[in-house]
Structure formats: C-alpha cells, structure tokens
Amino acid sequence: MTADHSMSRAADVRMCGFARRSTVQAALAWVDGHSPRLEAERASVWLAAVRVLAADVVSQADVPQFARSMMDGYALRAADTQGATAYNRLPLAVIGQSLPGKPFEGIVGKGQAICIMTGAPLPAGADAVLPAEQIEIQGDTIFALDEVPPGKNVGRRGEDVSAGTTVFKAGRVLRPQDLGVLSSMGQREISVVRKPRVQLVITGNELLPAGSPAEGYQIADANGPMLAALVARDGGNARIASGGREPPDGSAPVADQPEREADASRSPMINYLVPDDPAEILAAMRENSADIVIVSGGSSVGQEDHAPILLAEHGDLAIHGIAMRPSSPTGMGILDGKLVFLLPGNPVSCLCAYDFFAGRAIRRLAGRSADWPYASRRLPLARKLVSQVGRVDYARVRIANGQVEPISISGASILTSTTQADGFVIVAADSEGFAAGTNVDVFLYD
C-alpha cells in the first residue's frame, strides 16, 4: 500500500468532496496485494461442483481396473472367427456367460465362446467380442457370420485413466463430469480451496427489505439480492448482517440456502437492513467471522455516509474515491484483519464496483481467475462512444446486427440499463472514447 492511498487516522470529509481519486490501476493493485488464495479444505465428491481444486489430483488406480466388453455379444478368441462369413459359418461352443459385476470364472479355449453383456469383464482366454447381430444360435452352439480382429469391441484396463496420471491440475473449477471421473477413481473427498466468507452490510434509511412494495418515499433493496448472487457466482458464501435485527435467513449463507431465502421472501417485514447510524453500521461490519465485508451504501462523502469514517477510525481506509464512472465513491481497506469494500448504494455503481474490486478479491481468495467471469466479443461500434480523459468508463451496450450500440455511461441508479444491455465496454482513462466503426471488446453479461 502506498502512502498516497493510506489514511492513518480518521478525517471527516463529508460534504467536502473528494480531495483526490485513486486510479483504477492503483485500486486493482491494492486488491491483488491483499487477496491471497485461501487454505484448502476437504469436500465430498457429492458437494464439490464448481469448487476449486487446491492440489493436483493423481490417480492411484487404473480406470477401469479390468478389460470389459463394449457391447452385447460373445467373448471369444479372435482367431476362431478368421474367414467367417454368412456363407462360411464357423461354429463355437457356448460355455457360460459374463454379466456386469458377475464375471465368468473359467477360461475361454479354442472353439469356445461365452455370452457377454456390455460392461461385463472379459474372461481369460478371450481377446475380442463378436456382436450379437453377427451370429446365429443353435442350442448351445453359435455360428460366427463375420470375423473380428484381436481387441475388437473390448475396453482395455486403464483406458479411461491410467494409474499415476495427473488427471486434474490445481486451480481447476470442477465441472459435473469432473466429479464423475473423480468418483470413478475412488475419490470420496477432494482437496478444494475454502470458500471465502463474505459479510453483506446493506445500509440506508430509505430502504425496505428486498421484494417489499414501495411505501411513501422508501424503495425496496435491490443491492442485497444482486450482491448475494454475485458472491455465489464468484465462489464465495454470502452472509447478510442483521444490524441487530433478525436476518432473512437466520444468518445462514444466503447463496447456499435457497429454501430459507424463499421463506424470507414470503415475509418481507423481516428487516435485515442497517440504518444510517454509525454504531449500527460498525456493529454490522464486525458481526460475523468473515474474510471480506461488503458495505452497500453510505460510501461517499455525504452527510449520511458513515462507513468511510468508521473504517478510517477503527481500521485502515486505504482507498476512498476512484477515477471511474460510475462507482467513483468506492472505498476499500482493512478492519479487524478483514478486507472491507465500500460500494456505492446506486445499483449500477454497486454492480460495477463489485465486479472491478470486491468480486476480484473474492475470486482470488477462492482460487479462481481474478479476471471477469464474462465472455467477450470484439465488434464494431454502431456510433461513437464518448468518454472523459482521466477516468475509466463502464459503458453498457447492446449488440444488434453485429454492431455495438451504447446505451448509457451515466445514470448510476438505473439498474435496468444493465438488464437491457447485452454487456459492457470499458473505456480506459487515457481515452476520449471511440469513433463509430471502431472495434471494441464487449464483455457479455450472458
């Protein structure tokens, strides 16, 4: 952390404006310097989807551990079928059968065969499987109507995974099919990176609990549900501070308890919101054991913006005010050893600041890539996109007929500018924007 970005003591700058703003690059560097990957923990193979591997996985066994039939038919010696055709039927004596989990215990000799099902172990002596449609049956004798080479229709031992093979590397985000492979290798538990615990502190006297009908001059909380979903997307466990009230989910992880969250939605009078009171905000910031605290609202320099002053008084307000639009009132620092992000209350600013900074920290702690979890496309602008030198702009855009149409780079309270958008374009601080026809990188919400 540089001296320029650190506040060693509280300074009440409310209603005075920002004396200076940090660059986005400086803020990102601070995030990266304070968000090392968390420690490993064990997770059941049943519960490891989208978790991040903490260590390489090396198979201790062959998968499968035996040669098996790849289709229904007859296991035999390939040499016994040489020259077989529909006009030159070759007889073979059927001496038994092999079923999945119930192998034939004998040895297949010359001129012999056993009936075998898909997935069943190949018996000793046999080296091929003749498909059922290529034989004729007469009592205990079959007649081969075609020939097969050695190894035909047989899955070899270790065909899927060989013992000693590094199957997955550390840092991989596990997919459902990965769990199938791990289970087939005999892995009941996997070493994964611990999920970051993220405390959400939603502030504002003007807010009603999420999903509540508007009343008078109060509005429903939009940031809480949005932030909880973003935290879950980035590999964290979100918990919501109660501010001394009963939280909507009983202080259980918001993202991991959908059924309890649903119960809360049927009881909108349960109030988890934290009022614009310094003591209550500080208590909420310190309420639960967490790796990261995200405060929504009260992050700027207005009369009711208490969070920056509290962080400076009781911890370290490292950065406050960033040269970007929206999200310029963003702050970050340390409180009781926890990372704290102060996000603007305006929903678009909140989303933007989360993606740039808080989400990056969560992704890094969770062992994921720090980059945005958005696919991108490079497309031409349908019309010019204007920006101001000296700040980074987050411009919401639509894609139509293979071209990029800017929606808005202002209106930080208009959350529908993101729902109507296909994605966003970042305009660097040293740019005045882009002319029509310029190819730009669009980060896609979907």
Give a brief rundown of this model.
The protein is of the alpha+beta class and 446 residues long.
Topology:
Blueprint: H1 24-33, E1 40-44, E2 57-58, E3 68-69, E4 73-76, E5 90-98, E6 112-116, E7 128-131, E8 135-138, E9 141-144, E10 154-155, E11 166-168, H2 176-184, E12 189-193, E13 197-202, E14 207-208, E15 219-220, H3 223-233, E16 237-240, H4 258-265, H5 278-285, E17 292-296, H6 307-314, E18 316-320, E19 324-325, E20 331-335, E21 338-343, H7 347-365, E22 376-380, E23 385-386, E24 392-400, E25 403-408, H8 416-419, E26 423-427, E27 433-434, E28 439-444
Parallel strand pairs: 5-6, 13-16, 13-17, 14-15, 17-21, 19-24
Antiparallel strand pairs: 1-12, 2-11, 3-10, 4-6, 4-7, 5-9, 8-9, 18-20, 20-21, 22-28, 23-27, 24-25, 24-26, 26-28
Helix pairs in contact: 1-7, 3-7
Protein model, in words:
It is a single chain. The chain is an alpha+beta fold. It folds into 4 domains: 3-38 and 195-365, Molybdenum Cofactor Biosythetic Enzyme, Chain A (3-Layer(aba) Sandwich); 41-60 and 161-193, Molybdopterin biosynthesis moea protein, domain 2, CATH 3.90.105; 68-155, Molybdopterin biosynthesis moea protein, domain 3 (Molybdopterin biosynthesis moeA protein, domain 3, Beta Complex); 376-444, Beta Barrel (Beta-clip), CATH 2.40.340.10. The chain has 8 helices and 28 strands. The chain has helices at 24-33, 176-184, 223-233, 258-265, 278-285, 307-314, 347-365, 416-419; strands at residues 40-44, 57-58, 68-69, 73-76, 90-98, 112-116, 128-131, 135-138, 141-144, 154-155, 166-168, 189-193, 197-202, 207-208, 219-220, 237-240, 292-296, 316-320, 324-325, 331-335, 338-343, 376-380, 385-386, 392-400, 403-408, 423-427, 433-434, 439-444. The chain has a 6-stranded mixed sheet with strand order 7-4-6-5-9-8, with no helix packed on it. A hairpin with a 2-residue loop joins strand 20 and strand 21 (338-343). Helix 1 runs parallel beside helix 7 (347-365) and helix 3 runs parallel beside helix 7. The longest helix is centred in the last third of the chain and has 19 residues, at 347-365. It is elongated, with a radius of gyration of 31 Å. The chain starts with 23 loop residues before the first helix and ends with a strand.
